[in-house]
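Q: How do we represent a protein-ligand complex in a form that can be generated cell by cell?
A: Start from the inputs.
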Amino acid sequence: MTAKKRVAILISGRGSNMRSLVEAARAPGYPAEIVIVVSNRPDAPGLAWAKEQGIPTLGLDHGHYESREHFEGQLHAVLTASRVDIVALAGFMRLLTPDFVGKWLNRMINIHPSLLPAFKGLKTHERVLAAGVRIAGCTVHLVRPAMDEGPILAQAAVPVFDGDTPDMLAARILKAEHQIYPQALALFASDQIKIDGESIRISGSINQELTLFSPPL
Ligand code: GRF
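Then emit the C-alpha cells for the protein with 5-O-phosphono-beta-D-ribofuranosylamine bound:
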C-alpha cells in the first residue's frame, strides 16, 4: 500500500467539517492521515476537540503578526515542519495571499456551502434564500488565489424548502458537507485525479458519480 498522505486541517471556529475528516481518517484503509490541526483563533472550539483526540494542534493567532505575509510565513513553516502533503481548509476564515496559495498549489482544498461557481463568498445561505433558488448544496474544490474559486472535486445538491431560514438551510447543507468532504479528501489523496485546466478528471476505480453525489436527507 502507498503511504498515507499527511494532511493539515486549518480551521477558525466550530470545526464540524474537521471532525468529519478526523473521524473518516480513522478507517484503516483511508488514504490520508490528519497530522495537525491549526487555527488562527486559539480559542476555536474545534481546536480543543482535536486536542482531546490526541491530534497535534496549534493556535496561530493572526492578530499577533504584523502582516498577512508574516502570519503565512509562520503557517508555512509549521506545515513544512509537519511534512504536510495536503492542506484542507475547513471553515478557515482568513483570506490567503496568492503567494501562499502558490506554495500549496494543487495541494490545498476547501469546502464551501454552495454549488460553486454560484454564491461565492460570505452569507451564502442568506443570499441563496434571497435568490429563490430551489437547489442549494456544497462544493469541495482546489484552492486558487480568488476566493471560492478552483477546480471542483465534489459537489452535493441539497433542496431548499419553503419556509427555510438561513439556519435551517445551513444545517441541511452541513450534513451534506460532512459526507462529501471526507469522500473528496479520499479521492484527492488517492492520486486518482488529473487536473485538466480548471476541471478535474477522475480516473481509476473511484466511483465517478461522486461528483454528482446527492446525499439522502
Ligand atoms: C462550513 O459551512 C463550511 O462550508 C464553510 O464554513 C463552515 C464551517 O463550519 N467554509 P465548521 O467549522 O466546519 O463547522
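The chain is about 30% helix and 25% strand. Helices lie at 16-24, 45-52, 68-81, 98-103, 124-131, 166-189.
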